[in-house]
Amino acid sequence: MTLDVSRKIVSTILEIVMAICTMVFLLTLIMTFTFADQNFFINQFATQQLAGECNEQLNLNYEALSDETGIPARVYERVEEDFPTDEALRQAALSLFSEENETLYSENKINYFYELSVEYLEGNDISFKEDDVRRSAQKAARIYSDVVGIHNAGRIESRIAGFSKSFPRATIVSFLIAFACFPVMMVMYKRKKGGYFKAIGGILAGAAATAVGLLLLIVFNIGGSIDILPEIYKASITHTAKIVFAMTIFVSLIVVAGSVSIMRFLDKKIQDED
């Protein structure tokens, strides 16, 4: 095997490594500051728009429960004032990063609705059975959990935990490997144009592959594997994922454009003597 053939094989391997490292670097860099970041993730749910949608659903469900129990819907709807929905959404999202209950269904919430109901009934001299009121309080707490709490979050929770630990490391490692491959390529080609082109070409290929791959995900399968409930959470995560992927595509295209510009500049300035 001649020196030129050996050099081509090694340089091709290095190009592939640089392309892969570029892909990993771009993906993990953006994800580290978005989905893997606790504050960013929580802020996607603690919005007035999402809180308004939840309140509408709570009101509809509590009106139906009122027809069943005879207790006015406004009694149950006090939960929206005593426990502001945007803060409850924040609490549910925060629970994904901790050991707390992200469904927001608890005995304390049942007792809260029970006390509200008893306060109304006693204040209006309405006779009642404690068991019936307890059951209606359980239903009210379940409605609250189904609308505001997060369900089927096991996979999302484990992924977020994995993202938070692995992405910052992957960002640093991929950068260091790509950074190390570049001078090796330069030495192999004695800092001639072919070496620059192959090194920059690996970065260009990785950035282009990242942009194309994420664009295909957005177009065809974004959110397909998310089974989180209720639907408003799934819709919010899907929307956020599209934004994050779009950001990554934009950065990738900048890298592609920068690589092409550098290659054009080098093509004019360096005479390839290989």
Key features?
single chain; 274 residues; mainly alpha; 11 helices; 0% strand; rod-shaped
Structure description:
α1 packs antiparallel against α9 (154-188), α3 (48-69) runs antiparallel to α8 (130-148) and α7 (107-123) crosses α8 (130-148). The longest helix is centred in the C-terminal third of the chain and has 39 residues, at 231-269. With 274 residues, this protein is an all-alpha fold. 79% of the residues lie in helices and 0% in strands. The chain is built from 11 helices and no strands. The radius of gyration is 28 Å and the shape is rod-shaped. The mean pLDDT is 85.
Care to give the gist of this entry?
The chain is mainly α. 79% of the residues lie in helices and 0% in strands.
The best one-word shape is rod-shaped
> Proportion of β residues?
under 5%
Category by helix and strand content: mainly alpha
Please count the beta strands (DSSP E, at least 2 residues each).
0
Largest sheet: none
Architecture blueprint of SSEs:
Blueprint: H1 3-32, H2 38-43, H3 48-69, H4 73-77, H5 79-82, H6 85-95, H7 107-123, H8 130-148, H9 154-188, H10 193-221, H11 231-269
Helix pairs in contact: 1-9, 1-10, 1-11, 3-8, 7-8, 9-10, 10-11
